[in-house]
């Protein structure tokens, strides 16, 4: 699973941490527990959980009376959270492709291919923005 997440664009260590947390039976993890479970040093966990909490895929909690932090997979709609992390990437692609299209406007095949790619990414972004609502509707339907 970590390999698939990594190949889909998630950095290597966040992919490993998220994959571990999704398949393991535990609910909350310390950085040391994640390091042991993933088989890496605690220092390498720090950046991974920072990345995953910034994307709201993990929730960070404090242990009362301790400096320790606990991490858990977000209990809210994980599918929508994942989709939300894709939108900024698609917006960057769309912006870059649009700028390139303007730069080569009227230059034959290259301009046409860039315009087509821009149009596709704009379409994909729009569909991705609507997917969380459709996913919520789908989840409410009896399967």
Residues in helices, as a percent range: 55-70%
The fraction of residues in strands falls at: 5-15%
- How many structural domains in the coordinates? 2
Order of helices and strands: HHHHEEHH
CATH class of the largest domain: Mainly Alpha
**Largest beta sheet: what is the strand line-up?**
1-2
- CATH architecture of the largest domain, by name, is Orthogonal Bundle
Radius of gyration: 19 Å
Low-pLDDT regions:
none
Which fold name is given in CATH as the topology of the largest domain?
Answer: Arc Repressor Mutant, subunit A
The general outline is elongated
Mean pLDDT, all residues: 88
Number of DSSP strands? 2
Biggest beta-sheet profile: 2 strands, antiparallel
Protein name: MarR family protein
Keywords: DNA-binding, Transcription, Transcription regulation
GO molecular function: DNA binding; DNA-binding transcription factor activity
Domain HTH marR-type: 9-67
Offer a concise description of the structure.
With 143 residues, this protein is mainly alpha-helical.
Provide an overview of this structure.
This protein has 143 residues and is mainly alpha-helical. 68% of the residues lie in helices and 7% in strands. The chain is built from six helices and two strands; from the N terminus they run ααααββαα. Helix 2 packs across helix 4 (42-54), helix 3 crosses helix 4 (42-54) and helix 5 (78-103) packs antiparallel against helix 6 (109-140). The chain starts with a helix and ends with a helix.
């Amino acid at each position: 699973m970590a390999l698939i997440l990594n190949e889909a664009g998630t950095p290597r260590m966040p992919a490993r941490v998220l994959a571990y947390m999704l398949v393991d039976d535990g609910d909350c993890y310390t950085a040391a527990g994640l390091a042991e479970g993933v088989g890496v040093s605690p220092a390498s966990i720090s950046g991974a959980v920072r990345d995953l909490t910034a994307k709201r895929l993990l929730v960070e909690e404090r242990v009362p009376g301790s400096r320790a932090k606990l991490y858990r997979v977000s209990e809210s709609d994980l599918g929508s959270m994942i989709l939300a992390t894709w939108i900024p990437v698609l917006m960057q692609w769309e912006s870059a492709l649009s700028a390139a299209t303007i730069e080569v406007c009227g230059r034959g095949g290259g301009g046409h291919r860039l315009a087509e790619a821009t149009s596709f990414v704009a379409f994909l972004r729009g569909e991705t923005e609507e997917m969380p609502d459709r996913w919520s509707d789908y989840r409410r339907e009896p399967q």
